[in-house]
Amino acid sequence: MLLSRNRGGVVLTADGRAVLPKIEKLCAAHHSLMQTVEGLKDMDSGLVKIATFSSVSAQWLPRILKSFGELYPNIEFEVVTGDFYDQIEGWIVNGAVDCGFLRLPPVKRLQTYALHRDELQVIVPCDHPYADRDPFPMSALAEEPFIQLEEGDDYEIMAAFDEMGIRPNVKYIAREDRTILAMVSEGLGISLLPELMVRHSPTPIRICRAPLHFYRTIGIGIKDKKALSNSTRLFVDYVRTWVAENGER
Questions:
Q1: DSSP the chain
Q2: Which domain holds residue 44?
Q3: Which of 1, 98, 137, 201 reaches 20 to 30 Å from 113, CA-CA?
Q4: Are 29 and 43 in a shared domain?
Q5: Position 40 pLDDT exceeds 50
């Protein structure tokens, strides 16, 4: 028996967990075979599996897919969202996706292309006394109640604090950037987030320059350029051009 049903729903049994990696490899191999067949039939068709993270999903991906779809209407997409960068890297490596947006440099061995340097910004409530300070005072960044983004092993934000030599006064930890934006808007604290996360915030906040300049580099990664399907190659090339022209908007 591979599955077991309980009050929480359907879960894997020990046998199920044991065979799951082999099933995932089989699915990835089947997808790769179908991509090869599609590439032989028609360069402008096929399925592209994309891994992404929340800020790219919100700010870039809908516009990319819309404009790309106007050029290549027969190419279909499957989009999955990862909570952490290393999760996305793992999906690329094991063939679960064809390409993925991630932070550079990657931990795993991938072929990557840099897309955008994303600066970390301080976000505060609109009525914060330092809302107009440029840059935001380092002392206040250490003393104010801080809402921390849960980063897993991808600790770019806390690494910035280490470089500044300060320890934030962490009061809350949240996984979703939209949750943090709403909490800051309600006056629960301040935060430090990449600019792409805070751009076009759905809730009113003020964005301040950090005391020092810190960046994350966003890129797109693939496992092996030689093994790419035609449809994935078209998409990756298009993403690189699109971000160069539109990434700041």
A1: --EEEETTEEEE-HHHHHHHHHHHHHHHHHHHHHHHHHHHH-TT-EEEEEEE-HHHHHHTHHHHHHHHHHH-TTEEEEEEE-SSHHHHHHHHHTTSSSEEEEEESPSS--EEEEEEEEEEEEEE-TT-TTTT-SSPPHHHHHHSEEEEEP-TT--HHHHHHHHHT---EEEEEES-HHHHHHHHHTTS-BEEEEHHHHTT-SS--EEEE-SS--EEEEEEEES-GGG--HHHHHHHHHHHHHHHHHTT-
A2: 36-116+217-246
A3: 201
A4: no
A5: no
Is 222 found in the same domain as 104? yes
Q: Is there a single domain that holds both residue 128 and residue 197?
A: yes
**pTM across the whole model:** 0.80
pLDDT tens digits for 172-181?
999 999 999 9
We report the CATH number of the domain holding residue 105 as 3.40.190.10
